Each structure stands twice: as structure tokens, then as C-alpha cells.
Amino acid sequence: MRIAHGMALVTATFIAPFVTADASAQITRIDFQVVESPAFGGQTFGDIGQYERLRGVAYGEVDPNDVRHREIVNIRLAPLNDRGLVEYSTTVEMYRPIDLDRWNKAIYHIVPNRGGASAGDAVFREMGFAIVQVGWQGDLTPTDRNIVSSLPIATYEDGSSIVGPAVEEFIFNDDETVSEAGLSYATAALMPGLATFTVRASQGSLRVPIEDGTWSFTNERRIRVNRPAGFDGGAIYDMLYLAKDPIVMGLGFAATRDVISFLRYEITDGEGNPNPLMSVGLPNTAISLGISQSGRFLRDMLYLGFNEDVGGRIVFDGMHPNIAGSRKTFTNYQFSQPGRWQKQHEDHFYPGDQFPFTYGTVYDPISDRADGLLVRCTASSTCPRIIHSDGEAEIWQARSSLIVTDPYGEHVDLPDNVRAYLIAGTRHGGGRGVHVESPRLGICQNLNSPVPMAQIRRALTVALHEWVVDGTEPPPSRFPTVPLGTLVPPTAVGFPIIPDVTFTGSHNPLRRNNHNTFPPLQGDGYVVLAGRVDLDGNMLAGIRHPDLAVPIGTFTGWNLRREGYAEGAQCAGAGSFIPFAADDAERQESGDPRLSIEERYPTHDAYVSLVTQASDRLVQERLLLQRDADVIVELAKGSAIGQSN
Description:
Blueprint: E1 2-3, E2 27-36, E3 51-62, E4 86-97, E5 106-110, H1 122-126, E6 130-134, E7 149-150, E8 162-170, E9 178-182, E10 196-200, E11 208-209, E12 215-219, E13 222-226, E14 236-244, H2 251-265, E15 285-291, H3 293-303, E16 318-322, E17 362-364, E18 369-371, H4 375-380, E19 385-391, H5 392-397, E20 418-423, H6 454-470, E21 487-488, E22 511-514, E23 521-525, E24 530-531, H7 546-549, E25 553-556, E26 576-579, H8 584-590, H9 597-600, H10 604-620, H11 626-637
């Protein structure tokens, strides 16, 4: 048994700009079957008609000596076939019009989030897209529904296992006394004495060792721990252990690149099987949407140069990273864990959130280097048009301000091919609407924010497609900025004093981390800013959904954990909903400085009229589709707001 690199975490390093390579296809075989025709229960979609679902597996191979692949961690330790190439396979799922003559000749790619399958929104079927998903995450168990990749395990030349350090963090969020947890990789030694296991109350708290006799391996992929007294359900458990058999996870970027490139440019695979889209001509364009983890994947893919295929051709003409904030992913590393995402209370000590943060090239005085997400695609002339959209939760939890500032918090302009939008008042991923869902508390102090995001995201994706296809400029960026005074220090946003509501300015800070040790050695901190709010506590800048523009309460991107669950720490991506008082009497009794519902909306018709106006404005600005505006107005009409006045 050999240990790789002592106890250091292997990370990616910068390489020189790409050079021209052989343009042969990377997909050796693609096996597609029509598994559902018609799909969607036979539903028809406008003039496009019915759709069918295809599912299959793509088999690919990459040359580890190609300069485009040299930065894939452990690529030279992956097994080779008899041609000296590294093989992988991946699930591919596609929805296409049954009548391909009605196809709009565009690919709409949706990055799977943790392997989840998605058919996209109906509007994109009505527009005639071929909707494609490609597996990229290689540490997931495949099922007959999810979209995952099968990536090789790196070994030494003699076939022996690579052993090295891996880090796990567990937060159980319950009050059990004994807990079990799974490990991302199999341990190389079922000996607790070779691992370091600690617990701390919160970020920055003292680590307390968990003694060997109080925890154990139940098998090589699972542990059991008797949770120590004095720590509540939000405590953070850290484990550093010797893991074995790292997956060459960075190949997931190549898998996405290769499948989309095949669908765009190739007539057949290496065995003569036809491209399932070529019968009426190959696609003209391809755009990609990534939400949350998947949005971070797109930012990483772009940064690592994988929007250029091995023939030097562009893969995606447009990318839409959504709710990614300023982060990338913990993917292209040894013993990587792509599912990790850094928040104020969680996962601080994993790579994937370090400089660069924004798209243009800026100088970072903290790491003493200049970089940006577009450096490599600029060198290869394969940069896509980009719509970057975040919700307000990403301001507080994902350091989204660093999209539009330098590391010291000074304003930076976005490149001409990038637009940035911030959807105010939303939790991570957005809610279903103030008249649709009943907000909950969970482990948080405040109710979760129900302000939607999906409706605005749809309009932005449509705008991206139009930008790519015919050059129609998307709406101007709508993001808080330093020059306009709408991006300020988190404690200075101007949040009002509301009875029984605690505001501390808690946010997810960031320091330069050296991950060659654990815990990482921390350097200087980056400046993270937040959005200024109005007298109600609602964010001023960005896109204000009608639920926020015509509010029935305060909606924020932050929330705090309640007693028993690391009280006062940020409550993941929940956001807050703090309802207004029903009338002036209730408001006066509680001391709430915000106007009541009755004072704002004297009649139901007055409320509906304001919602209609707010919806119409967003439609005119191309930030909301008319179909979604109609739904929003109908929900307002069916509400009880103003009915009892």
C-alpha cells in the first residue's frame, strides 16, 4: 500500500493555452433507444407536436497526452486501452420532437444536478428544442432513471491502489445520540487510530477530538459515532482519513464536452451508429443551463477549457449558470467530492471556492496573480455568451458579490459576452410563490422565503437563446453594484428592526486557503458584500418578482439557525419570510415599523392591480414570459389579500 503525496490534497494547476489537436471524434459508440414515444403522456407542444424520450449510453475515450487533457487530475494514472487511450462511459438522455422536421435545430442541454433527470420546462418543448442531459458525476450509483457517468479509477502502474487523504464533514441536524454516516471513498485501513475525527460547535470554534472508542468503521464505506455530550444538532464533525481508489472525476467535463460535440458535429459514431439528430441536418446551436451544483459545474467547465472540443470547435454557444454564486466545484481533484457546496456554516475546507471568481480577468493581490473564468476560452476563441443568474441567497451564502467586484470589493465591469442578474428575495433555488406554498421553519428561526425564481430563469434562458441565434441583446444586467450604492458591507444593508427577528449580517466569508494541510492554512480574506434593502427589509436592486415588488412581507436570502442547531449560524439557503401585520392595530401592538397589509392594499382589486403592473413591467423588460405573468396575476386574483378590508 502506497500513500500518494503524503497528506496533501492533489489540486489542479494552470497550463499553457491550448494548441490544435487531432479533430477525430471522441465518442467511439453511442447506444440510443427510444424508450417512450410519445413522451409526456402524449401531450402536444404548440406547433412542434409530440416528443419522444431516448435514453442510452455513450462510450468515449480521451488521449491523456493531448494538452487539453493534461490538467485532468490523475489522467496519467488511469488505465489505458490497447490504443493508449483512457475510456469512460456516460448516460445520455434526450427528448426530441417526434417529427424532427419541426425541430428548431438547437440543443438545450441541462446539466444533471447530483444525477437528477430533467425534461426541462414545457416552454422549451414548445420552442422545438432537442433537450439533452449527459452524465458527468462519477461517484453516484447508477439507476434506471438517473444521469451519471462511469469514470475510471486511478491506480499505480502495477495496478495497486492509490491511497491518500480524504476529508469528510458531517452535520446531522437532529438530536440523536448515535449516528451513522457514509464515506465518499472506501477507507484504506479499518483502524480508527489512523484517522483524525473531531467535532466543533460552529465555524471557528475549537475542535474537540472524538476518542477512538466512541466511533468505529461499520465497513470500509461507513462509520458509526456516539455523539458527544455538549454539542447540539448543528455541530460540525470533521474526519480526515486514508482513502483508496480515487475516481478520475475530471473526466466528467470531457464526457459532457464530447457528447455535445458529437451531437453537434458528427454524423456517426466510431462504429457507424447514426447521430440521433442528423436525419434533418446537424444542430446549428447549443446552449446549457446549470442550476446550483450544475451551475458551478458550468463555471468550472468553462474555466478548465472544456468548451473547446478536441477539434478546436466550440461546444456550447451559450451558458446559463444559475445560483452558482462565485464558486466552482470540488471535482477535478484527487478524492474529489463534487456534491460539496460551501456555505456559511458548512463545507469551508473543501477546494472549489477559490479565485478566480468572475468572468473577466482581474488581479488578485491576495494570491498575487491575475486570472478569470474566460482565460482559456479566449485563447481558443471558444467563449460562449453567458447569462449568470443568482438569487438573493447566493449573496449571503455563495459570495455572489465577487461576480461584479474584485477581491477587495471594488467594482469590475463584466465582459461584453456576459450578463449578470440577481433575483431579489429568493432562497436557494427559489420558492413556488406566496400564494402557492406554505412556508416552513425547519431548523431555522424564520419561515422560508417562497419568492419564485424559475419563472424569471425561464425568461433569461429564452433571452440567452435569442442572443445566440440572432444576436438579439438580452436585457441589461440587473445586479447590485458598488457605484450605485446597492452593494454594501453585510452589516450595513439597512435592515429594519422588526420585533422577534434577529439580523446580524451573518454571511459566508472567504479566505485564501492552502489545502495542502488540514485544516487548510488560511491567508487573507476577500471582501464579500451584500444588497442594500428598503424600509421593509426587501432588497432594492436586482430583479424583483411581483411577489416581492408587491410584498405581503419581508423576503430575504438569509435566515439563521434556531436553538439546538448551531443557533445564529446561517440556515443553509433557506431565506426568510417575515409576514406583515394584518392591520394597523396589530402592527402598533407589536411595534412593527413596516406598514400592514391593510394599509398597503385597501382593496383586493388594488392589490391585483399592483401585481398586474409589476408583472407587465417584467414582461416588457423581457425578464418574464407572458405565460408566467398570466399565472402570477391569476394567483393574485385568487388570494385573500385585501378581501377583508
